[in-house]
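Hi everyone,

Forwarding the result from last night's run.
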Amino acid sequence: MIKDLDYASLAALLISLAVAIVSIIKFRKETKVKIQADLVTTLTKIIDIIRNDTVREYRELLRKSDILRHASENTLPMIDEYTEKIARYVAVSYDKLGFILKHDEDLERRVLEWHGEDIEEMWTMLAPLVYYKWRQRNPRYAIEFERLGKKAKVGK
């Protein structure tokens, strides 16, 4: 009778162990699929930000602005309302990008290798506006853009 109980206990233990192993394998597969889906979603967001037609157009307009290209780092450039609007749009776009990337160093490194020159150029142009105008209202304004821009500059 005791032997039968030992066999029954052993059988129950083996069944429990098999169920646990199957659950772990299933969990790992589901996790891998979820990670890949998240990566695809993140990459899509990154490409939407960087290759967005509006951001591209506004970057080109900012590059043509002699005032911003030749502005001193220590003074607020005097620009018209439209130029400030497009500058803010670009800064916010790169701030979103920085926020997405700060959680994945490898992905951030790859994006900076691919798009770092544009990010660094835009940060250099827009930093005086961020420091001397926009942060007067919000001290954390474009903080991730700043982090990304400085990192792109160092990576050169």
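The two ends are 78 Å apart (CA to CA).

Cheers,
N.
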